[in-house]
Amino acid sequence: MNLVLMGPPGAGKGTQGEILSKRLGIDTISTGAMLRAAIKEQTEIGKQVEKLINDGKLVPDDVMVKLVKERLQQPDCANGFILDGFPRTTAQAEALTESGVKIDKVLSLEVDDDKIVERLSSRRECSKCAAPYNIISNKPEVEGKCDKCGGELIQRADDNPETIKNRLNVYHEQTEPIKAYYDKMGLLVTAKGEEKLEDTTSNVAKALGLEV
Ligand code: ADP
Ligand code: ZN
Questions:
Q1: CA-based end-to-end distance of the chain
Q2: Distance CA 23, CA 35 (A)
Q3: Which long-range contacts (CB under 8 A, 24 or more apart) does 65-69 make?
Q4: Mean pLDDT score, 14-39
Q5: Of 36, 86, 89, 176, which one has the fewest beta carbons inside 10 Å?
Q6: Which residues line ligand 1 (CB under 6 A)?
Q7: Extended beta strands in 12-152, E state
Q8: Looking at the predicted structure, is the pLDDT value of residue 159 above 90?
Q9: What's the whole-model pTM score?
Q10: Beta carbons of 83 and 17 less than 8 angstroms apart
Q11: How far is the CA of 128 from the centre of ligand 2 (A)?
């Protein structure tokens, strides 16, 4: 299955992507995680995008399209993949279609804006492996430590109130129109993001026609 996950920041794409990845045996490709890794390593791309990301702005389409096309050519994508964070603009969606990559389904996780700020301020991620956590709804076994690798849990630089507001605006203006694009292609399914992680997981399974 070639799947696209979309939804506002903090909708739970990273968490649900990881659950689906295990369940379906395919890798999640998170463009946000790729970009944060590039910033950490201070690569050319990393230096180029750091300020944009910390301001809640989008990285230019040409940069993203090149990055994702290269990633999708890796052998591990042959059996399927879950795209998290791409496409994020109509131009990116069109570029993906034109590249000949077949998408089977586009899952939109729906969460109201007023929930987002609250959620993002309790979000944490592993500084080593980028696994997602939430100190209210998805706690690690040991406080401040990653269950998978023991890495330290940190708050993302773009999870501050000002940047969150920008990211939400960008989502509504630039990313949400993609839903209509994929709906026309007959690929769009939606699932409501709930307070409780397990409830969202079961909504997602239902939307994708998997056993709950
Ligand atoms: P979110 O929690 O907002 O869904 P992500 O981890 O997916 O965050 O992305 C973080 C930031 O990385 C975005 O706010 C944006 O600046 C940049 N980014 C990630 N993917 C893309 C993309 N496909 N196009 C443009 N910018 C992107
Ligand atoms: Zn970890």
A1: 18
A2: 25
A3: 65/92, 65/95, 65/96, 65/99, 67/31, 67/34, 68/29, 68/31, 68/92, 68/96, 69/99
A4: 94
A5: 176
A6: 9-10, 13, 31-32, 35, 52-53, 56-59, 64, 85-86, 88, 92, 158, 167
A7: 27-30, 81-84, 105-110, 123-126, 132-134
A8: yes
A9: 0.90
A10: no
A11: 5
